[in-house]
User: What shape does this take?
Amino acid sequence: MSETTYTQLLQLSAGLLLLCAVLIVWRRSLGAHIRLLAVQGWALAGLVAVLGLHEHSAELLWVSVLVATLKGVVLPAVLARATASDRTRAREETPLINTTAALLAVSFLTMLAYLVSRPVLALGSTAAVAAVPVGMAMALFGFLVLSTRRHAVSQLIGFLLLDNGIATVAFLTAGGVPLVVELGVSLDVLLVVLILRVLTSRIRTEYGDADLDDMTELRD
Amino acid sequence: MTPVELALDTQLVLVLAGVVAAIAAPPRLRSLLAGVLSALLGLAGVLTGAWALAGRHGVVELPTALSLGPVTLDPTPLGGFFMVVAGAVGAVAAVFAIGYASGPAASRTSWVALAVFLGAMQLVPAAGDLVSFLLMWELMALASTVLVLTEHAGRAEVRTAALWYAAMTHLSFVLVLLGFTVLAHAGGGIDWASMSRVDPTSRTAAVAFLLLVAGFATKAGVVPVHVWLPRAHPAAPSHVSAVMSAAMVKMGVYGVLLVSIRLMPGGPAWWGAVVVGLGAVSAVYGILQASVASDLKRLLGYSTTENIGLIFLALGTALILRAHQVSAAGDAALLACLLLVASHAAFKATLFLGAGSVLHATGERDLDRMGGLVSRLPVTATAFGIGALGAAALPVTAGFVAEWTLLQAVIHGGRPHDRMVAVTMPIAVSVVALTAGLALVTFVKAYGIAFLARARSDGAAQAHEASPSMRAAMLIAACVVLILGLVPGALAQAAARAVGLPAGSAVTQVGFTHLGARLEPLAVLVLVGVMVTAVALIAKAAARKVPRREVELAWGGGGVRASARMQYTATSYAEPLTRVFDDALRPERDVVVTHAGESRYLVERVQFHQHVVDLVEDRMYRPMLTLVERLGVAGRRLQNGSIHRYLAYSFFALVVVLVVVAL
Amino acid sequence: MNGSVGVNVSAATFATSQVLVLVVLSPLLIGLMRTVRARLEGRVGGGVLQPWRDLRKLLLKEPLQAQGRSWWAMAGPVLLVSSSLALCALTPLLGTVTFPSLPDDLFVVVSILLLGSVALALVGLDAGTAFGGMGSSRHMMISALVEPTVLLSVYALSIPVGSSVLSRIVEARLDDPASVLSPVSLLALLALTIAVVAETGRLPVDNPATHLELTMVHEAMVLESSGRDLAWLEVGSWLRLGVLLGLVSTLLVPWGVATDLTAAGMLVAVLALVAKLAVAATALATVEVALAKVRLFRVPELMAGSFVLAFLAVTASYLVVQG
Assistant: This one.
């Protein structure tokens, strides 16, 4: 693979990752969130594959397959089942800050991500390093979603966005994560999601709602 | 005696002559005489400034009774630029005032104050040392306060406005004084030369810079110290508002330029960031408030805050870019700053004079009660329209050229040399773009509601065109807006000379060869003109075949009659924006529904009341004022009129002093 | 001197042909969009030529002038058409040769566009009815919110080129077609497309086919105009749509645009423009069928979204330049 093609493919997948992250903040329907997460999963897998092809690393290619399966297929499917059982609340109705404010926050977070990754950018001028702020921004968006959405499934989505961001940074800077580590992390994420999903549905059957505001009463 | 000295002396003589004429002339001739003299004073200022810009020198020293030495006037090219701006605005406003001034505005006090105000204002940038600067500055502040108070007898809000103005203008003076004291102390002298010996990177310089910027920003009406501006402008007579808004606030800009370009060039980049920050906030906040205002003069006042914001944004960008050695774009930004100063002076003077003419003709400042003035006040409508085009930064006006230059500077400055540059430039572009968009709404609203459609009140229906001097003043100002927009080269050259940049050659264009950008407004005019002619010819040919037919009502929104009250008003025009920016504006809304009889469904009357308050004033100043008031009430306990108590205080103080000395 | 005369001549040729081509095409474009929409909705539709027929009818009808309307009712429509025609002449749709004294600088183009918007808004206000003011007020609000997106997205496109002149940007894209597919370019074009859809009053921002009081924007402004005036207003708006669609598609697919004046190049450029516009219009109409108009007060969300995309494009372009 030539250097320019590599750079372009890398940029394209990084751009797709970022676009999906922005759209997750923008849209309010949970179905759209889940589809976007799936696309993002595939974009991440693509990013890993491009890195693997560039470095001729078979291990990275396997990681890419793993990422695609887990983030592109399994996790979205799990989330989709979580929402499918609850047709009535398939939208994030009242996030804590309105969409316009969230979107403006997104542009500032992007700037912030760009600023804080300057030390990393100074390390090298490869295309992979140049894309690090994208991962950083995704992690920040994830936090934003986590802290401003009320719906429990939205929380999961924010968490996964955060995880995708961290994974992106890891792949881009470390130039590849050992397969074992990636496997471990992925299984952890899967486990967390499954547990949270079970908890959410239990809470909903108990209380008939999955709004976090109502859950504050649970501490008593 | 050099021409500059002669012109400076002439100005001093004219100020005196204006004062004498205002006091001595019989009431019938007072306005004419004092007005003509004030206008000549302005022209003398323009001339002085032009000579200073051309590089001529001249020093005038006035002996004073003060122990601080003589008042020195020694205009530099930078000062000259601002003298031209101040003088031109003053001259036009004085001509306008000849016909406009009546009642208290035509009184002796008012004309004396105007002559002193104009003279002091155009001599501020000529000041050759600190004492003269502060003297002129204070004189300008005092005279303008008197002018704001002009109509205090008839309107209660004038007194409040003058109080706010006096307080803020003195806050400004104190901050400027403190800042210069720090600087003079570090530099070892009160003349500009010794002050410029201070190392700009030192901590002292930083303290002085912050104090001075705060002081000058207060004068310039930058958020959050803008609160005097939207109050003082509606309160003052229109020609005074025009001078204050178009020229006086620029003295604040001159102050910042004096500090950051002349006295301490090469300051660190964060200076620029501070100025950009102030500018960006002012620009957006100012235009947001302007876009929802329905008092025409308040609207124009807020628009001044917006424009000063853009000027600060340009200046700050220039400082940042220069600190990072992006010199081509930095120079362009500095040029943009001065172009914005000149263009704002031109269009804001036009607009305020236009607003004055409307007020004179209809007795209304409230846009909600105007309408249909285009046929009754054709000259005012034309002038105001041109001014509004300038304020909305549309071709082919001065405002467009200035904003184009600013945008060019900003987009070419945006290479990632440094994180501050990389962060500032996109934000600057967004701020300028949003501001431009909202300015468009604001001035479409102002022009469309006031001049088009049908009259919304009796005053508007019986409006009459202004007197010849007012018409002449408005048309001159409007022509300046157009000329500066059509042949911007001359102004750009003057601006370049003022800040020591290489001047371009052509008169018809503004261009930056390093940036590969150039603008020739005449070409834009020709292009649009060709299209308009072509379409108009076709329309004319068609009109010959099927002429226009006048009917009582074309469609009338489907109704059989359309009352003027059914029209959109300024408030309803701004309603979508008020809703969109609800979080930033927080308007107070009040809906009262009166039901007919028992039924919940039959509505007899709905009253809607909406009031947009200035959030900065409400959230920042009110608590402060309340606190001060409480302290004052508490302080009252200290004095009860008993002479023994006061003696006891003195005694107590004496003992404390003795104890301290003994220790 | 000869060189500059030559440049001026070819620039004038391109400008004139762009004006002519767009004047002919824009009504057809509207006709095409209406037909596509009608077919997708299972109707027959009026045919591609219907807008041209409407236009001829309107131009030959007498305009009615209500009492109390000012000369603006007559001048506004003329100014709108003129600004749209000036846009046609300026934007590099057929060729990138520009007048040396009048480069198609982005900010000049936007300001001429805004001149047209203002003319239209004032026509609405001048009507002196509730509807005219309502449309005008909404129209200006949308214009104000669109402006940051437009400027930022073209700013993003201009960073790699180092110039805000549209022709230079198109030329750079012709030289390096791969740059079209970079994330910067895609994000910026997406943002620009949303902005254009909003500015030209298409779904989901404004429904061009509605006369429902609560939702109309553009139609509300032109309600009181009739005959010739209405014809000008309609043509002006159609031309704007044509130019802006053409601009977006030229930036996305720059091929076909001529860099110097030759007969063959011009022919190819015209054919390419026709093809691009036809595809763009069909795509837009198809998407519109599936979209519902959003509430007016959800429009800022849409604009904020497109603004963020443009902002990301700018940020991303720094990252690319960095590398």
Chain A has one domain: 3-219. The longest helix of chain A spans residues 179-207.
